[in-house]
Amino acid sequence: MISSEEQMTTLAFSNVFDKQLLNATLQSERIRATILAGTSAALGMTLVVLSRFDNSDFINALRQNDTEYGIFGLAAGLVIYEMFLRFVLGRVIQKEKIPPLSIRYVNALVETSVPTIAMIMFARSFEPMYALISIAPFFYFIFIVLSTLRLEFWLCAFTGFVACAEYVSLSWYYLSVAQTESLHPMLQAHVYYGVKGLLMLITGLAAGFVAIQIRRRILHSLKTLEERNAVVRMFGQHTSPEVVDELLKNQAAAGSARKYVCVMFVDIRGFTQFAERRPPEETVAFLNTIFELMIESVTKNHGIVHQLLGDGLMAIFGAPTSFENDSENAVRAAMEIIDAISKESSEGTIPPIRLGIGIHAGEGVAGTVGSALHKEYKVTGDVVNLASRIEQLNKEFGTQLLVSGEVWNSIRDNWNNGTSRGLTRIRGYEQPIEIYELVS
Question: pLDDT digits over 186-230, tens only?
């Protein structure tokens, strides 16, 4: 059973996804309109030049019955039509509206009929059968190929069907009224025009197949981007790209689950007294500098910043995805934080400060909490509480980095600078645990 909250989340995701896809489709339609307007303008300009400087029999024939002006008007009308369509699509995109599908089919019918009108005009100056083998039918294929940018299979197929039906119908009509005695035998054969029409239909189907592939690529890109954004929103901006990629690759579940994790708490010693003696602006600038160093070290070592705590932070290693050596990554991040703070202090960038860091590893419950409107990724359990208590022991021992025996046992083969503090009683726990101090 899918919960109502999950349904709301899916619906919200679908609405955003559909809106992005619609925007991509309409933008593609605008590109198609622009290309057709440019092509028509180029054709019109070419005819203008030819009509002025070419005195061939072809051009002279077009001048009869003012056919050339009809062709100019047709080209100019298509330019105006496509530019108007481009303008309308722009307004639709701005208002985020969905144009009716019927309007798109009407538009496809109007555009694809342009070569048919051109052939009828040519037939006024030539033998009608010659109009069928003129340059006009080639423009069917321009409209069919560009229909790919509509990103709809059936619109592409419809464009190919209209081209096929109009061309074959016009050819068979002209065959019925033409004086065929003077024509080449090939031009008298119905099958010749039928095969050309069939090629138009097949081209439309092929364009539809290409449109499907383009649409799938766009869908995949949008889905991947939305999934990545969802991961970043869930785990915060302080997640390393490697962690995000691992989550996307493994499709980490959003539900709660038991996981073995390593938890690190970092505390800035004496922050309250520090903040009391300084203006808020200086305090915020100080925190930003400190947190930048901490977050960089955590993310670089495949951890996530679980929570900023005002004068410290909590970081998780091993959830939502594990990189096998999570305890070692946590210790390495802690060492880098201490070294970075020490360096900044010695250079005078920040006032001299000390840190308290506690690390513990164990089983916890990891998963998302919240509502469909706001979700956060949380790790809860005794492992978190114990890591926090270990961090507080730094005040008692005068140290900066303490880890539990659980952590030490998992890193001891690669770490030689650990000193046991013995079995130590932890506030709130009956049984003492062994604590180790680590130094860089």
Answer: 666 778 888 899 999 999 999 999 988 888 887 777 677 766 666
Cβ atoms of residues 32 and 152 within 8 Å: no
Q: Are 277 and 421 found together in one domain?
A: yes
In terms of residue numbers, what domain contains 209? 4-231
Residue pair 331/359 in contact (Cβ under 8 Å)? The answer is: yes
Q: What is the dihedral of CA 128, 129, 135, 136, to 10 degrees?
A: 50
Nearest to 25 by CA among 35, 37, 17, 13: 17
| Residue 348 CB neighbours (<10 A) | 8
Angle at 277 between CA 276 and CA 280, to 5 degrees: 70
pLDDT of residue 181: 58
For residues 152 and 255, state if they share a domain: no
Mean pLDDT across the chain = 79
pLDDT digits over 167-187, tens only?
999 988 888 776 655 666 666
pTM score, whole prediction:
0.54
For residue 365, is it within any domain? yes
Residues 167 and 256 in one domain: no
Q: Provide the CATH number for the domain around residue 417.
A: 3.30.70.1230
Q: Assign 3-class secondary structure to the chain.
A: CCCHHHHHHHHHHHHHHHHHHHHHHHHHHHHHHHHHHHHHHHHHHHHHHHHHHCCCHHHHHHHHHHHHHHHHHHHHHHHHHHHHHHHHHHHHHHHCCCCCHHHHHHHHHHHHCHHHHHHHHHCCCCCHHHHCCCCCCHHHHHHHHHHHHHCCHHHHHHHHHHHHHHHHHHHHHHHHHCCHHHCCHHHHCHHHHHHHHHHHHHHHHHHHHHHHHHHHHHHHHHHHHHHHHHHHHHHCCCECHHHHHHHHHHCCCCCCEEEEEEEEEEEECCHHHHHHCCCHHHHHHHHHHHHHHHHHHHHHCCCEEEEECCCEEEEEECCCCCCCCHHHHHHHHHHHHHHHHHHHHHCCCCCCCCEEEEEEEEEEEEEEEECCCCEEEEEECHHHHHHHHHHHHHHHHCCCEEEEHHHHHHHHHHCCCEEEEEEECCCCCCCCEEEEEECC
Domain end, chosen from 197, 231, 265, is at 231
